[in-house]
Amino acid sequence: MAIAWEHFTPWSALLGGGLIGLAAAWLMLLNGRIAGISGQLGGLLERAGDWPERGAFVVGLVLAPAAVWLTGGGAVSANLDGASPALLIVAGLLVGFGSRLGGGCTSGHGVCGLARRSPRSLAATLCFMTAGFATVYLLRHVGG
Amino acid sequence: MGRVLSALGAGLLFGIGLIVAGMSNPAKVRGFLDLAGAWDPSLALVMAGAIAVATPAFLLAGRRGETVLGGSLALPTTRAITPRLLLGSLLFGSGWGLVGLCPGPALVLAGTLAPEAVLFMAAMLVGMLLFSGFERRRA
Q1: 3-state class of A83 per DSSP?
Q2: Domain extents for chain A?
Q3: Which of A84, A136, B28, B66 pairs with B36 at a CA distance of 20 to 30 A?
Q4: By the CB < 8 Å criterion, does B139 face chain A?
Q5: What are the structural domain ranges in chain B?
Q6: What tens digit of pLDDT does each residue of B47-74 get?
Q7: Closest-CA distance of chain B to residue A40, Å
Q8: What is the ipTM metric for this complex?
């Protein structure tokens, strides 16, 4: 392992992480909800009783690049130029189905679950991290 | 109405946090997942920062037993570590590694209207709907 110091951005990572934590705290303290994106989105798709709240949370996320741009933060780039449509579709299906089957994703298990000291979320986080590390390893160092 | 506006604000702040943190940059996420290459540890600090801020809020909410507005808390009650938790997380992690997008950043980037990001989000929504269909058939 070699650390890519030239790409390491500790301050923006901590600041952005802090804002994510603040948003999760906000949704819990004011709405009583876990800020798990896959859970919020999954319930919205299933038209759960509280769908307006879920929909508003999702709309807020979608509007974030516009908000950053309007406040002078520049245009957010998707940075997905090299990805083929087939890869995007397969990965999207895996992320959507897998995060619902596993009851959460990076936000619900990785942030909120770990902040609640949930052993279940720790197990889930270890699984998706391991799978993520393994997939990138196979793509970049074995198959690629 | 207040609750809906509050959720909108929380979503907006969450999305801005993802952008500031670099989580909405798939190349950066894959740099974090590339342990064997030139490893960018930044995203570990994103998680640490988020958890550090969220932890006291969850403790406070748990102690109060209700929201600041007097509403109920929807906290997960499942405690068992089940095969579906592990299998689902493994599938999710594989998809995350393939492109470098998890659900939050997928929604944020769809907001830029980049065709690749919109396609990824559409496939993700189909994956979630497939799960809902699979759940209904089991029930």
Answers
A1: coil
A2: 28-143
A3: A84
A4: no
A5: 1-75, 79-139
A6: 999 999 999 999 999 999 999 888 899 8
A7: 10
A8: 0.97
